[in-house]
Design brief:
Length: 245
C-alpha cells in the first residue's frame, strides 16, 4: 500500500513497505529491509498504514490509529492529536492519511480527515490549516454545520466518537466584554438534546465549536434531523444537521 526509501544519518539505506492482508492467514503491518530485501523486519502489526515518510534519524507512519514515529524501526511512539498552539483549534480525528517530512526546513506535515497540520519541533507545537467558508462573507449564512450529513461512525472519529463542527463569525461591532456564543441542539420535535459549553469572545474572527453527536446523558443520538441554534448577543441564528448512523 505504501513504499518509502530512507537514508539514515550513518548512510544506511532502508526500504519501507506498508501492506494489508489478502486472506485470513495474513496481517496488515509495516516492514523494512536494510539489505535489498534479503531480510525483512516486521513491525506495527495490525496497523493500517497509508503513508510513510522520514528524516535522516526518524521514520513516520500515517495510520488509521494516528501518526507513529520511530528511531530504530522497532520501537514506536504515537503522536497526540494536534492542537494549534496559537488558536487552540484541534484535529478531531485519530486517523492520519498522509505525512511528509520536508528536510529543507525540518517541517513535518500531517494530513487528516479534519485538516492539515504541521510542526517544526517534532510535535511540541502545531499549526493547523483547514478549509472553510467564512460566515462573514457577503451572501453567506451566519451559522452552519459541517460535515453535513454527519456520520458519527465515520466523520472525525476520536475517542470512539465522531465530531461535527459548527462555524460562525464574530464581527468587530459584536465584540464586547459580554460577547457570549451559545449553541443549543434540538430534535425534530424541538425537544432539547444538548447545549454546548458557552464561549466568551473578546476578538473578532471566525470561530468553531464541536459536537460529538451525543445528548446530555452521553448517549449517541438517533438518526434524524437536528435543529441547532446559535445565540449571540440576544440574536438567534439557526441551522440543521442530519445525523446518519
Amino acid at each position: 500500500m505504501a513504499l518509502h526509501r530512507q537514508v539514515t544519518a550513518d548512510g544506511t539505506e532502508r526500504i519501507w513497505a506498508a501492506t494489508v492482508e489478502t486472506d485470513q492467514s495474513e496481517r496488515r503491518a509495516v516492514s523494512f529491509t536494510e539489505d535489498d530485501g534479503e531480510t525483512w523486519y516486521i513491525t506495527l502489526l495490525g496497523k493500517r498504514a497509508h503513508n510513510i515518510t522520514s528524516s535522516s534519524d526518524a521514520v513516520y507512519v500515517a495510520t488509521d490509529n494516528g501518526l507513529y514515529k520511530s528511531f530504530d524501526g522497532l520501537n514506536w511512539a504515537r503522536f497526540h492529536s494536534a492542537v494549534d498552539s496559537l488558536t487552540g483549534e484541534q484535529v478531531w480525528a485519530e486517523a492520519a492519511y498522509g505525512a511528509l517530512f520536508d528536510s529543507r526546513d525540518s517541517t513535518l506535515w500531517l494530513g487528516t480527515p479534519d485538516g492539515l497540520a504541521r510542526t517544526r519541533d517534532a510535535g511540541v507545537s502545531w499549526e493547523i490549516e483547514r478549509s472553510f467558508v467564512s460566515t462573514s462573507d457577503s451572501g453567506e449564512v451566519r451559522f452552519y454545520a459541517y460535515p453535513n450529513p454527519f456520520y458519527p461512525a465515520e466523520n472525525n472519529v476520536r475517542g470512539g466518537s465522531g465530531h461535527v463542527r459548527f462555524q460562525y463569525h464574530i464581527s468587530a461591532d459584536e465584540v464586547g466584554a459580554s460577547t457570549t456564543a451559545r449553541i443549543s441542539i434540538y430534535d425534530f420535535a424541538m425537544d432539547p438534546v444538548v447545549s454546548l459549553t458557552s464561549r466568551q469572545h473578546t476578538t473578532e474572527g471566525d470561530f468553531r465549536q464541536v459536537w460529538d453527536g451525543r445528548n446530555d446523558a452521553g448517549h449517541q443520538v438517533a438518526n434524524g434531523v437536528y435543529y441547532c441554534r446559535l445565540t449571540l448577543i440576544n440574536t438567534e441564528y439557526w441551522t440543521k444537521v442530519m445525523v446518519i448512523k
